[in-house]
Design brief:
single chain, 140 residues, alpha+beta, Aminopeptidase, six-stranded mixed beta sheet, 4 helices, 6 strands, globular, cytoplasm, GNAT_dom
């Protein structure tokens, strides 16, 4: 992902997350911090994006994965997740964590397929809906 992709992915962020969407500034900040971000393209159209932050010598966090609704169930999210896991491995981070809404069963099942297990709950994590987040982790 580059800075010029941000405006094109914001409608996807809005479609998926509504009031809990990330702002352009949040994505700019992620890029400025040097976090690893990807976009998935169908031609020149962005159909998905994902980000990874390596936060310690041996730990990485999946910051987000988003796939536009009309491109879901085509393996885009799976490929983005695989790319993030490969980047974590490349950077020497065997422990990868993420937060996912407790009511997002499809995402939780995908993460479980890749060895993620529930390790905690963050109460009221997503705002303004006050939805809890399930913290999931995998270790190589």
């Amino acid at each position: 992902m580059r800075w010029f992709h941000i405006e094109d992915l914001l409608p996807i962020e809005d479609e998926l997350f509504g009031d809990e969407r990330w702002s352009a500034g949040m994505f700019w900040n992620e890029l400025a911090l040097g976090h690893h971000y990807l976009v998935a393209l169908d031609g020149e159209r962005i159909v998905g994006y994902a980000g990874l932050a390596v936060t310690a010598p041996d730990e990485a966090w999946v910051q987000n994965i988003g796939v536009r609704k009309d491109a879901q169930r085509r393996g885009v999210g799976r490929r983005l997740l695989e790319a993030l896991l490969a980047e974590a491995e490349r950077r020497g981070a065997p422990k990868v964590l993420l937060e996912v809404a407790v009511d997002n069963g499809p995402a939780q099942r995908l993460y479980a397929e890749y060895g993620f297990e529930a390790v905690g709950i963050r109460r009221g994590y997503y705002q303004p809906s006050n939805t809890d987040a399930l913290v999931m982790m995998r270790e190589d």
